[in-house]
Amino acid sequence: MGLECVLIGTFLALSAATDVTLTAEKAIHRARSAGKVRFTLTNHSSVVQTVKGPAPWQAFEGMQEIYAPPSSGLVEISLAPGESKLWVWNKKRMDGSWAARGTYTLRVGPIFPPGSLEGFYRSVDIALTPTGTLAGTSPFPLALGNEWEYQGTDGSVDTMNVTAKSGTWYQVKKLIGANRWVRMTGLWYPALQTSSDLRLFRFNRLPGYTYSVNLGTITELTVGSIDDTIMTPAGTFKNCYRLDSSTADAWYLSFWFAPGVGLVQYAKNSLNGPVTYRLRDAKMRGVDGRLYQIGQGN
């Protein structure tokens, strides 16, 4: 009976641990400038979660700790079910100097569920760039090494990545369910163009504009919005451009694109109904040529 209680307690602790999330308010910030990086730990579980340690959180550059808030002893912070805790980092190192451009990991923990002697951590990656953006204003950045990972509302995971280049063309794996050669057209008429000369996604039209495509079950796309704000596990993205499928039986329903990041959210049908996929993490080559990571990757 004692062993059974221990096993049940362990199971509940592990289950509770999966219901604790750490998210950044913004995924991308300007390096070496004033402003706060805000990140929030939220307890979605049905039990109290306790952060306990010499510091509630730490900032890492790779494997090296560069900052932790000073404390005079053991820190203990309890979060009731449904409660959140907000922290801020001023983008500086422990010696007060600015953190340079690059990817930084903010880690909170250890976090202890009730009755557990083993804590767990939650982390989120943010990018500090020279301009505070990644790939400029491009709504679909194309560069070798770019990767996007999405978390579905049904628990599933989807990925998309750029794997090859030929001239101005890039191969994107799992773009709308298939591997496709695409390129971005010029600034005068910005669009993601497929190798069959179809302008799949057009980015300079006003809401209500509808155009024809020929891609699987999608035959028409309509501009739904040009200024949506989308909250994802990778961060919150403003001024998102939304395209909606106007085809009644289309498998894919809507797409949201954020400047400099690309596709940050999309919705599609499944056998069990509509599923929304939100950006979980991404690796993106910035305008400075450096590879940055944002979101839940570490």
Summed up, what is this model?
The chain is mainly beta and 298 residues long. The chain is 5% helix and 55% strand.
Question: How would you explain this protein's 3D organization?
Answer:
Helices cover 5% and strands 55% of the residues. The chain is mainly beta and 298 residues long. It folds into two domains: 2-129, Immunoglobulin-like, CATH 2.60.40; 147-295. A hairpin with a 2-residue loop joins β17 and β18. The radius of gyration is 21 Å and the shape is globular.
Give the topology.
Blueprint: H1 2-17, E1 20-24, E2 28-30, E3 37-43, E4 49-53, E5 57-61, E6 64-67, E7 75-79, E8 84-89, E9 102-112, E10 120-129, E11 147-152, E12 157-166, E13 169-175, E14 178-184, E15 191-194, E16 199-202, E17 210-215, E18 218-232, E19 235-245, E20 252-258, E21 262-270, E22 273-285, E23 291-295
Parallel strand pairs: 2-10
Antiparallel strand pairs: 1-3, 3-8, 4-7, 4-9, 5-6, 5-9, 9-10, 11-12, 11-22, 12-13, 13-14, 14-15, 15-16, 17-18, 18-19, 19-20, 20-21, 21-22, 22-23
